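Private note to self, pasted from the team thread so I don't lose it. Backbone tokens:
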């Protein structure tokens, strides 16, 4: 088995996914049989061996020439590596790789596509969603299998007319946080919340920032790991409030340290295919408050460890900031550290993908 992973942007959850999946695939197939194509500017987000990575120079969704050059890198990578499986990650990689296949004969390799969250799941006008769905359906002819990262992901695909025969649910998961990960230290006089992700509309960062602004409580802090990727909105003004603290992007080990040290994670997303960051938090013993978007309820059923916020999310966050008790929240965190177990591991995910590759 020779597997070529093709990506456009890996920032965030896709980087986590690949960093944890690829070592298992290297052990299964051999390092010489696994290859990855990513943007050169995102190399620092990956922890896999550099020897298996090829890059394209420029990541620019607004430039068709840049996207076309990216697609040419994909084609060159296939010709040089001669894979038995091409695994496409995200909408743009899936579009630019599969579009030329509409005009060519069947290729001698299997094409696996994972959107990591459908474009038509976004909060867009219905005509835009239908356009996205039409494009996805049109490209199915050049696709052997579609990987859905949650049951929600599959239901959403089917509701927009994507053939169930090609849909395979392979739920996301993560590696267990090692004992060598030490909790980050915080000022215990505050309740210390954490946000991890892009400062973009999809992730609901604007909802979080507005809720912080509206809260009359000064005894909490929200530490924000990430930055704007899709959105061009200037978030600097949000961080003028001392309760909202920007940390920029962090390496995986640092993120886990913050999760282990903080009192709770906030996930205010408007839409999510899965919500990997929430699962990471639970594994680190960090309770989660989330919006219930997309696949989040599948991995985070309501319990003392994970709370699905009521709509409207902004007001629920304001209420939480104003009323949450530090003693009870930290008692929940202590129980979570003792009781939570991860039963579906990254090795299980790798084995599930192997079945799809081999079928």
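Design output:
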């Amino acid at each position: 088995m020779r597997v070529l992973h093709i990506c456009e942007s890996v920032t965030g959850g896709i980087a986590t996914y690949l960093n944890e999946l690829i070592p298992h695939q290297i052990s299964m197939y051999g390092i010489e049989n696994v290859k990855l194509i990513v943007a050169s500017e995102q190399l620092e987000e990956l922890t896999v061996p550099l020897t298996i990575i090829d890059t394209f120079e420029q990541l620019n969704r607004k430039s068709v020439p840049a996207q076309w050059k990216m697609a040419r890198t994909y084609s060159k990578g296939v010709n040089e590596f001669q894979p038995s499986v091409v695994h496409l990650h995200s909408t743009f990689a899936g579009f630019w790789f599969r579009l030329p296949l509409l005009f060519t004969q069947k290729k001698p390799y299997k094409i696996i596509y994972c959107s990591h969250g459908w474009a038509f799941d976004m909060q867009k006008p219905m005509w835009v969603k239908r356009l996205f769905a039409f494009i996805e359906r049109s490209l199915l002819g050049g696709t052997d299998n579609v990987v859905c990262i949650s049951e929600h992901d599959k239901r959403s695909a089917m509701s927009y007319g994507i053939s169930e025969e090609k849909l395979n649910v392979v739920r996301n998961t993560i590696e267990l946080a090692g004992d060598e990960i030490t909790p980050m230290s915080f000022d215990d006089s505050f309740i210390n919340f954490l946000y991890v992700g892009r400062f973009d509309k999809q992730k609901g960062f604007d909802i979080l920032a507005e809720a912080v602004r509206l809260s009359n409580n000064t005894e909490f802090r929200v530490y924000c790991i990430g930055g704007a990727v899709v959105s061009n909105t200037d978030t600097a003004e949000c961080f003028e409030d001392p309760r909202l603290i920007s940390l920029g992007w962090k390496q995986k080990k640092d993120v886990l340290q913050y999760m282990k040290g903080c009192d709770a994670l906030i996930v205010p997303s408007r839409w999510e295919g899965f919500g990997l960051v929430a699962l990471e938090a639970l594994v680190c013993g960090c309770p989660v408050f989330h919006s219930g978007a997309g696949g989040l309820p599948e991995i985070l059923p309501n319990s003392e460890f994970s709370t699905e916020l009521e709509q409207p999310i902004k007001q629920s966050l304001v209420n939480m900031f104003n009323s949450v008790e530090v003693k009870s929240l930290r008692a929940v965190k202590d129980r979570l550290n003792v009781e939570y177990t991860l039963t579906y591991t990254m090795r299980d995910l790798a084995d599930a993908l192997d079945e799809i590759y081999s079928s």
